[in-house]
Amino acid sequence: MTSKNPSNSGPPPPSNQPPNGGTKAWLQMLGSWCLIFNTWNEWLVEILICPDNADTKRTSQIPTDIDNTRHRGNFCISWIGVIQALLSFAVGAIVGPIYDRGWLKLLLFVATFCIVFDHMMPSLCIEFREALLAQGFLVGTGGGCLLVPSLAVMQPDFGLRLSLAVGLAATGSSIGDILYPAIFTNPIDKAEFRWMVRVIGFVALATLLVPLAVSLMRSKPPDVRKIVDPKLLMDGPYLLCILACLLGYIGCYPSYYISYFGLA
Fold first, then answer.
1. pLDDT tens digits for range 95-115
2. Global model pTM greater than 0.85
């Protein structure tokens, strides 16, 4: 009676290795590109609500509270930018466990509504608090819902090419920062302020429909992480990384004022 080698019997076990390419994988990268395109262009608020960036014919369409208090325009813009940034990361801490449970499409629907709605609302804003609600709270909430999925959805589909895919997807931020202000400023003499912000909203809607159609979760993590994990407070390298990120972002946000210092 001959013995069989169990290692050679039966079909080979299925591979859990990422495909490292292919149509589905690159479609995930395209979806992430569109998400990042609408996530990291929150600096648009400087153009949308600052009266110094609109011509006099449209001053009445800019939030009245800012228009009547030009001397504290920087203060108002700071509040909106701070709330945007805070919510983008704070909401992301909650979005992570929701994404781990497989609710990707729900997050994308919520983010699409928030981003499109907030781009449309400056056309109807009358007072500063309305602009703060639209451009601060809604942009921050929508950006937070997009931030985690934009990076997480690509990882199961790329192995050795993950750095390439993330690098290509990250270009969406730069292109968004160029395209959105260009849409608003170039035809400013040909169209009203209200219609310019609506056009920006339609562009956001068109680009966010792409991830709604193509972005999928290839697999779910075996364990859903906790929103608050006390063990992380004892992880020295992790805390050092958090400190480095904190200092890095502190250096980023003075960019709100560079254009104003140049004009002063």
1. 888 888 889 999 999 999 998
2. no
Give residue 128's pLDDT. Answer: 73
Largest interatomic CA distance in the chain: 97
Q: Is 218 exposed, middle or buried (0-12, 13-18, 19+ CB in 10 A)?
A: middle
Question: Nearest to residue 128, comparing CAs of 165, 168, 88, 80?
Answer: 80
For residue 13, pLDDT beyond 50: no
The 3-state secondary structure of the chain, one letter per residue:
CCCCCHHHCCCCCCCCCCCCCCHHHHHHHHHHHHHHHCCCCHHHHHHHHCHHHCCHHHHHHCCHHHHCCHHHHHHHHHHHHHHHHHHHHHHHHHHHHHHHCCCHHHHHHHHHHHHHHHHHHHHCCCCHHHHHHHHHHHHHHHHHHHHHHHHHCCHHHCCCCHHHHHHHHHHHHHHHHHHHHHHHHCCCCCCCHHHHHHHHHHHHHHHHHHHHHHCCCCCCCCCCCCCCCHHHHHCHHHHHHHHHHHHHHHHHHHHHHHHHHHHC
CA atoms within 13 A on the CB side of 32: 29
Residue 210: its pLDDT value, please? Answer: 94
Read off the pLDDT of each residue in 162-181 and give the average, rounded to a whole number. Answer: 86
What local confidence, expressed as pLDDT, does residue 72 receive? 47
Residue 117, both tokens: 């709605």
